[in-house]
Design the sequence.
């Protein structure tokens, strides 16, 4: 039995070393690096985003009260319904193009109308975070999401390998998939934001475990089948302790034969005249 455990531990140790070497040896290709944009190189991240059905359109106008302070969602046919103008086709237009179109339509009623438009994307547009983080899964894409911001919200856990965070830009064409590995720990500790990537819709952020964390996870995986047996073995002892607590407890004095007071043992709480 001991020999079997030693063999398993040796295999886990070798696996951790192989994992570390393999990941460290996967340097990103130049084409992959070019596919990603550093956040500090762009003040406006998603200026070219084009409106889609279910996007929210926020309109403001100081010269045209009929369209001022309007929040409306784009219909499935790509239009929005506005007072004075009726249905306006905005699908696949940018914020600037929608504003220009509305200003042109409003010239029939106003001299030199001014309109500002902002697009708010729904939560169905996502960035995906997986691995050793507290809050994994899809995150709403806002168009201004950096790698550091997304990870700060996801909260990497104790065994997160911050030096080897991978960002994948997926594609239906395998040849177009891009991947880059970023040292987020350096960003946090040194304040070096040169690699604080600007994420796009659909990007996948994966935070791998450290080598020791990987070993711990593999041990949990090996022990997982034994958990029901351990729970079954421990249940009689817990039940016995619970029964002893209820049977030996003196409700009038708040004591039993073994302890002075039971304040919060096994769900039992002493009762006094002034309440619980």
Sequence:
């Amino acid at each position: 039995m001991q020999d079997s455990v030693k063999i398993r531990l040796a295999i886990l140790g070798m696996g951790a070393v192989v994992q570390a070497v393999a990941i460290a040896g996967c340097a990103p290709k130049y084409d992959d690096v070019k596919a990603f944009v550093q956040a500090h190189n762009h003040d406006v991240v998603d200026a070219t985003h084009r409106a889609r059905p279910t996007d929210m359109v926020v309109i403001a106008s100081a010269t045209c009260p009929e369209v001022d302070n309007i929040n409306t969602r784009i219909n499935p046919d790509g239009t929005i319904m506005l007072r004075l103008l009726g249905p306006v086709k905005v699908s696949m237009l940018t914020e600037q193009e929608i504003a220009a179109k509305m200003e042109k339509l409003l010239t029939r009623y106003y001299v030199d109308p001014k309109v500002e438009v902002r697009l708010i994307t729904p939560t169905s547009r996502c960035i995906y975070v997986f691995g050793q983080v507290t809050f994994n899964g899809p995150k709403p894409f806002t168009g201004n999401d950096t790698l550091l911001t997304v990870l700060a919200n996801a909260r990497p856990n104790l065994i997160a390998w911050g030096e080897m965070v991978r960002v994948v830009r997926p594609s239906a064409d395998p040849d177009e998939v891009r991947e880059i590995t970023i040292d987020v720990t350096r960003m946090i500790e040194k304040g070096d934001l040169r690699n604080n990537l600007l994420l796009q819709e659909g990007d996948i952020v994966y935070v791998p475990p450290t080598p020791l964390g990987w070993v711990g996870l593999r041990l949990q995986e090996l022990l997982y089948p034994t958990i029901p047996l351990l729970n079954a073995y421990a249940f009689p002892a817990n039940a016995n302790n619970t029964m002893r607590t209820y049977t030996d407890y003196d409700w009038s004095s708040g004591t039993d034969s073994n302890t002075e007071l039971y304040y919060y043992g096994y769900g039992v709480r002493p009762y006094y005249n002034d309440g619980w």
